[in-house]
Design goal:
4 copies of one chain form a homotetramer. By secondary structure, chain A is an alpha+beta fold. Chain A has a single domain, classed as Class II aldolase/adducin N-terminal domain (L-fuculose-1-phosphate Aldolase), CATH 3.40.225.10. The first copy, chain A, has an 8-stranded mixed beta sheet, sandwiched between helices. In chain A, helix 4 links the parallel strand 6 and strand 7. Chain A is globular, with a radius of gyration of 16 Å. Chain A starts with a helix and ends with a helix. Chains B and C meet through helix 3 and helix 5 of B and helix 5 of C. Chains A, B, C, D: Its EC number is 4.2.1.109. Chains A, B, C, D: It comes from Thiothrix lacustris. Chains A, B, C, D: It catalyses: 5-(methylsulfanyl)-D-ribulose 1-phosphate = 5-methylsulfanyl-2,3-dioxopentyl phosphate + H2O.
């Protein structure tokens, strides 16, 4: 087993424990992956609790989502990870989490518009709070290939996108490293709580 | 003492610590049980703080709720546990927790209707977010045998039910194992917080 | 140093750490005491952070609030502790905490009325959720002897009272032991969060 | 390396861990400093996660904000720290945090007015809850020298100020020691949550 695989697995286990402490990975929701090389990735296997992952909670898969380990099945949503790695060789990590705010906002809004928040600078290429960040929301579907194709087409048309929500289902975001992607999750969850509180005060 | 009893007790102690960290077992509220065999169960004894349980916080009781250990009294709500084990030999664990959301929603609603949430798939037999889950709410009562009979009749009529609330009093859910039932609690508490936030935004 | 003093001090230190983890003792607010004997008590000294107490954060004082240790000054609110110990020899602990909900509710309401909550059974003498619990709210004052006299007169007239709030200033409750009083705090903070959420939903 | 530097660094690392546990330093937001002497300070370096700081996350800089360590760049907002140390030789610590409440309130209000809260006594010179504390809110800007000059002019005109907010960007406060400044943060975050809940109830 390579050092890289072992290191990435440790980073994803720690990420899961942090998310669990925040309530962002309830029950067996959510899934995490990290790129291993040009053609393969490490991804959480199906049905794991993401706050209590151990070394056995992962498998290697190729970028078509085919398991490279006999007897282990990747997460049902693997296609939403592989679509990102195939789009962009610079992407090294994809994290899907499932917070209350991501869920509720995705059921109330058509998209999440972020403007005027200093924390927007946590995203690559954003230099000022005066920028405007759009987080699209896709309808939920159990047809993952169709959903992945829809995401892919949207990202072709909107290449600056840093994350998206699936309605009633949570957040997907990505980055060059696990640490990068964690920073995106922290910034987005912070912003979602701000947006929720703003919505309440607006009513 | 059997290995099974020791393992189940450890799992229930850990469950209580997790619930306490979330504020779901305030004061000496809540009670937990796990099936030991065809005719007996392990249940928390009366008056314990469920976040600081130790080995002495439990007793063996039969499925009529009679203590099998001299000098130890089972929880006052034992009848709500035994009714589940008698109904269904596949049930291996019953957990009653007492969160703010379970309490407040049970005092505002006639029933909790869950629809459109991906997390609903945490429950057995639910394959899609398009399903519709109904959590009934029973009036609170200090007459536990009467309440148990009411629950039993409701479950006969609605066998797909995964959990219920007692008004002002919290949540009961069950599963084949402690881990299973924990997953239900996590999913339900997540959903209750979503429902609470939706209610606030709806006003 | 007596074993009792050492044990009580340890219990109050642990209570402070728990309260701090919940955000109920911000900055140097709050103060804790426990009865040592018929004529003396242990109380937190002035200006301590109650979440990071050590053995030096306490002093012995008599039930008129006079320090029994040279060079150590008891909390400015000592008179609200001694009035309780003088009233009732069965009282073994008085805890004052300072949560957001205790603060906000005390500034919005004339009194907190609790009815229909199962958790009310955490209080001595309460056997059913059908009881009705009244938590009075006193105007804040920097004149502690006057405030203590007002509390004393109220408790004479309403001996079933289990706790009170001071407006903008937090909660006082008491019990026979530290564990007892901790149970009251947990139950009350749970109920205050319920009341806050009910108020929001009522608007 | 001096004992003072080592001690202060340890205090700021611990402060960051505490803030992170509360969600007040999301992503790589926030920055912390402490005075080392008449002419220099310790400050977090650019781009660090403030909840996971280690010894390498800091650098020495002079009070014009010039790094005294080759290859290390101070935080982009260094000028908001140095302006305070230059104003007042008694200031020993400046902390900038970035909570949801500080962010949301700064985007909804012209200033935060605090009155009637006992916790106001956590600030130097405040002896009673009857005082009135004003926390000004400055428009956000990426031009830090201009923002620092604006803060400086405000503080000249309002020397009793204990903290300020930058719109959409968080809180700045200061004190004679790290412990002092931590107490201010805890008190202010407590008060911001109170103000947010009051605003919601007012609507």
């Amino acid at each position: 087993m390579s050092d890289t695989l072992s290191r990435l697995r440790g980073e994803l286990i720690a990420a899961g424990q942090f998310f669990h402490s925040k309530g962002w990975v309830p029950a067996t929701s959510s899934n995490f992956s990290a790129r291993l090389g040009a053609e393969d990735m490490l991804i959480t296997s199906s049905g794991q609790h993401k706050g209590r992952l151990d070394d056995n909670g992962f498998l290697r898969a190729d970028l078509q989502g085919v398991s490279l380990e006999t007897g282990k099945r990747p997460s049902a949503e693997t296609g939403l990870h592989t679509v990102m790695y195939r789009r962009d060789p610079a992407i090294g990590c994809v994290l899907h989490t499932h917070s209350v705010n991501a869920t509720v906002l995705s059921m109330r809004l058509e998209e999440v518009v972020l403007a005027g928040y200093e924390v927007q600078k946590a995203f690559p290429g954003v230099e000022t709070h005066e920028s405007r960040l759009m987080i699209p929301i896709f309808p939920n579907s159990q047809d993952i290939p169709a959903l992945a194709a829809e995401v892919n087409a949207y990202l072709d048309a909107h290449p600056q996108t840093v994350a998206y929500l699936i309605r009633g289902h949570g957040l997907y975001t990505w980055g060059t490293t696990v640490a990068d992607t964690l920073r995106h999750i922290e910034a987005l969850e912070f912003l979602f709580e701000c947006v929720y509180r703003q919505l309440l005060l607006d009513r």
